[in-house]
Amino acid sequence: MSRADYLSRLRRRGLDQAASKSRDVHTLSTPTIQALERIAKSSGPLLHLPDEVETEYRLEWRIAANHIRVMLCILPMSVASILVVFGETLLGMPEPLAQSMRLGFFAIALPFALIPAAIGWLWPHSPAAGALLAVSGLVSLVWMNVLLAQGAALGYPIHHALLPCIPAGLVLLSGFRFVPVLGLIGGYLAVDQLAMQYLGTPPRTPTQWVGEITLLAILAAAALWMETTRRRSWAALRLLQLQAHQDPLTGLRNRRSFEQHYDVVAAQARRDGKRLLFALADLDHFKKINDRYGHDYGDGALSEVAVVLSQFSRRPLDAVARLGGEEFALLLYDCDPAGAQARLDALVDQVRALGIDNEEAPLGVLTISVGGVISDGSLPMSELYHSADQHLYAVKHRGRNGARLGPIISG
Where are its TM segments located (predicted)? Predict the structure, then answer.
């Protein structure tokens, strides 16, 4: 196998797979991370994130926008209620029009405003609240067009400029995505045309149409810009979060994330009376790989070894991390000494079986040395690290390519 073929295999098997094993909420696959990096640096329109995080983004933004959406339901109805009660006195509204406003307010507008407000308040993660808010806006448009038609028939003209306030408020404040905004604008135009055709609302002048279409176009452009900005900012923030928890090359946990996970697992082990396997693994003669084959080859080797390590960390409380350079850590929950030794030996065998070329090493391939200890979770990770490191050093001293498990230690 040529070096180019082998590098391709490493990238295919390593970079694409290493982060796909045993991930938690802090970790993402390598292709997704790379896509987020491109998005954070891009400048063009952006309507979709990688599939792995699109649902997460929508949920987070839905919850973040929930309070303003609830206010969008309540505030206009509060203003409308004042007009319903004092319309005749404050605005000189004819009695038939005032009665029609009261009927439409209590029978149509108010229920359609309170329902999405209640759903948004009680279930902020539900997409139904946003959908019902858009429906509420369209229902309010129908109601206002009815009032416009009745006002014109009674000689009490109501200015049509009130109508665009509804899509403007929804677009600028609700946080709707661009595609739903286009649907909302289309719904606005459809309601407007149907109202003129069937309700007899006063027609617009050409100048008024130009102004209204211009406003709607500006709203659409604003929605596109706001969504692009939100998504790009979210991608940058997600990358910052990942840097605190995930090794960018292998997709494994980093030291900080591993230490935090150990504290949780150790506490669980103490409660359950279980034992933990803590192991340190170090690639043998790894510097020779970088010196002979280059750092790209070395990075691919690290990623493929990470795939092997991830296969030993499948349960929720297990963990594997890249601590730095060619050093890795493994934590297995509820692991007895006999099972621990078997797993460490299997790890050594599987890494050697990868057949990663390392011609200057004694065996001609990349190998790994492992030192481990069993604990009851009563000791801090620093003490386990020190003990496992001593056993790792013993393996290195006697020729590498092996595993050594120390006795059970406890506080």
Answer: 68-91, 103-123, 129-149, 161-189
Task: Answer yes or no: are the C-beta atoms of 366 and 356 closer than 8 Å.
Answer: yes
Maximum distance among all Cα pairs of the chain, rounded to whole angstroms: 102
Report the alpha-carbon distance of residue 79 to residue 75 in Å, rounded: 6
Q: Which residue carries 């692991």 as its tokens? A: 335
As a three-state string, the secondary structure of 320-387 is EEEEECCEEEEEEECCCHHHHHHHHHHHHHHHHHCCCECCCCCCCECCEEEEEEEECCCCCHHHHHHH
Q: How far apart are CA 193 and CA 205, in angstroms?
A: 14
Could you report the per-residue pLDDT of 21-49, keeping only the tens digit for each? Answer: 334 445 677 788 889 989 998 888 999 99
Is domain 249-409 annotated with CATH 3.40.50.300? no
Residue with tokens 């959908």: 131
What average pLDDT is seen over the chain? 88
> Which conformational region is residue 327 in: left (phi greater than 0), alpha (psi within -120 to 50 degrees), or beta?
beta
Instruction: For 260-296, give the secondary structure using H, E and C.
Output: HHHHHHHHHHHHHCCCEEEEEEEECCHHHHHHHHCHH
- What single-letter DSSP state applies at residue 398? T
Residue 401: CB atoms within 10 A of its CB come to 22
Sorting pLDDT into bands at 50, 70 and 90, what band is 354?
A: very high
How far, in Å, CA of 172 to CA of 178, rounded? 11
Average pLDDT over residues 256-264: 92
Nearest to 255 by CA among 111, 346, 341, 382: 382
